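Summary for the steering committee. One of the milestones for this cycle was to obtain a three-dimensional model of the protein with magnesium ion bound, which we needed before selecting residues for the alanine scan. The sequence and ligand used are listed below.
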Amino acid sequence: MDIDTLNGLFKPKSVAVIGASSTVGKIGHTVVLNLTESKYEGNVYPINPKADEILGFKCYPTIQDVKKPIDLAIITIPAKFVSDTIDECGKAGVKGVAIITSGFAEVGLVDLEKEIVEKAHSYGMRVLGPNIVGILSNSDKFNGSFAPFLPFNGKGSLVSQSGALLIGIDAATYMRGIGFDKLISIGNMSDVNFADTIEFLDNDPNTSCISLYIEGFKDGRRVIDVSRKAKKPIVALKSGVSAHGAAAAASHTGSLAGAAKVYKSAFAQAGIIQAEDLDNLFDRTLALSLQPPLKNDNVLIITNGGGVGVLGTDAAEKYGIPLKFAPEDVQEELKKHMPEFGSAKNPVDLTGMAGNEWYFETVNFSISHKWVQGLVVLYCETAMTDPMGIAQAIKEAVVKSGIKDKPVAVSFVGGERSEKAMHWLVENGIPAYQAPDIALNAMAALREYAIIRESANDEPFTYAKADKKLAMEVINKARSENRNALTEIEAKEIFSAYGMPVTKVKLSTSEEEAVKFAEEIGFPVVMKIVSPDILHKSDAGGVKVNITDEKGVREAYKEIMKNAKAYKADANIHGIVIQEMAPWGTEVILGSVNDPTFGPTLMFGLGGIFVEVMKDVTFKVAPFSAKQAESMLTEIKAAPILAGTRGEKPRDRKMLANTICLYANMIVDLKDEISESDANPVLVYEEGSGLKVADARIILKKK
Ligand code: ADP
Ligand code: MG
């Protein structure tokens, strides 16, 4: 990435506004007005052939007439004129263009958008938008947008795919007292996309948390890559997760929103913390922008009321950081600052009698104690206390402790005085929230961030002994026969070439051969139809299991052939496969798709009827580390079945995780060949006894 060019876009020293206007209410007027009102210190060049001056700035007929260095050109003229303007900007030596104008890919004019980007690139320019609100930056006193004002100042920076939402958020920052340094609208992402903005903000000294509102990525894989490398926390709200929502997002932005589950997994892999809704995005951004990560889950709650304490306790468990009792020595010390009827366990209940001093003493002591890794301070407004006094006591206690690597979050429940006190806390670097559960959720975000940082450097798994040559021979043979569907035998050959244990198979083309192979493999055997035209073999009556003798083989042979012909008269039948009958095991499914956003993506779930009915599956974008493969096993609801429930021994999770890695390696290695695939079922045995791929399917990409 060229930081210099992106700096030109997001932190310009000089700006031309193309389509600047003297008419109040026009976007071309509002942008110039906003630059003045935000007290922008760089040079402003309005471009308009019909005006001499706009809002005190000298106006130029074209951008080439300016003849001074220009970092950014903000374009507000109608869509049909934009392409020519790009040439003029290029010739004027502009670094980047921000196209506010809409009416491009989002209304179907994909080619026009493409042409603009190609043209801009030929001059070395980057394009933000089109279809954007603009760029707002507090630290640069730069409101290069048609949003009314700079956001409430803070340390997070937000990138939004929706322009209207960005304007709404801009205003909401004042109401909520949750600030941002930058708000960046990226609209259609014709060129500059999420990955670019993440890279830029990660290097921006005025941003400490990167906050994203996402409808859909264009290059999901790069987002994962840059996010994994980012030094700062990234928190994202993804919309369009409902089936209906996805359709709405697609028509709004011209970019297709991917499946919610794939996104969820991709976020986890990218080290992007997810927000549940808009409020949650604000709340988590606030915590992540102000506080350090929570290194382990020893969170202590200090409160003056049992009610908020219990609410906090419930929330802690709900968000994955369940409370533990503080050690004896901590309790002993805390007891000194509460009445007889208080509680020094966790939550620490100072009771309604708690004033500034008790808050100060307990916060100061707790944050300094080695057991405590994070502190949540709760307070209910009382008649005897002043919220601002409590807020100041908390802040002072933290400062005095000198501790900077343990997070603190606060919640005051009360009226206007509490509200004011919380604003003060936020301004002084301590996130404060209206309800205890929100403070605990914020703490959980800081815990998630700590965990992400620990796993950020895990190396992706690769299988050194993979036989790609063999796999390609199988694939090329199918292609030479004009087939995209591989047979089970072919698919198993490829799975095996990538190290996965498959059942022994032999293809028979006559009853006699079937008997011979069954004897070679050893009874009991399984017999299945082999035809590229019959993908779901059971549906066609094409599978017979547990065949124990010659007679059974002969009967099965005739029946399977009869069933297959009845199912599809013109099916191209290669024969009948004889395979070892794998002993019963827990059935799981592994599968893959070549996701349009993220590329080769692996799916794992419990097999059999569970997968169809429960949809209890999880995804991971390949490749990934061995550790991430292990974590997939715990991500499904049925995880306890693998761990062994009700007297059942645990399944061989180690081999399963290893097979997931091998599978991932296969779909990455063959990403140009495989469109989708699955191993369903994989039979997983007791710990130490491994597993077997009983059925395999591969669909090739169309070429
Ligand atoms: P389908 O094309 O219908 O998915 P499968 O090959 O998966 O066909 O066979 C259907 C079922 O038969 C499987 O779900 C599994 O329970 C059982 N099965 C298939 N092959 C074997 C085998 N080699 N050993 C044991 N059971 C098998
Ligand atoms: Mg199957």
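Key point for the committee: Residues 503, 526, 528, 536-538, 543, 545, 579, 581-582, 680-681, 694-695 surround adenosine-5'-diphosphate (ligand 1) (CB under 6 Å).
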